[in-house]
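Worked example 3. Consider a protein that binds zinc ion.
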Amino acid sequence: MSDTKFCYCCRVHHPIEQMRLFPTRQGYRWRCVRSIDAAVKSVDEREAFGQQQTAINREAARRTAEFSQRLRHLRTVAP
Ligand SMILES: [Zn+2]
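Given these inputs, the predicted complex is written out as structure tokens:
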């Protein structure tokens, strides 16, 4: 039962098979696979959300442009 490493992320000891050396600002530190996976997943989700938001913004900008174009057109057509 001595093959454990202290996980700086969970602040508990995990079996060494679950541990990976992870680069941090303070250098390499032991971290468990589970916490690394969770962090990677949350980054993916954040990126997916960002892309979705960009698409929404682009669509909103396009509609605004279309609308103001139509207004301009109406003004030129109107007497
Ligand atoms: Zn951990």
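Take a moment to read the result before moving on. Residues 7, 9-10, 14, 32, 34-35 surround zinc ion (CB under 6 Å). The chain has one helix and four strands.
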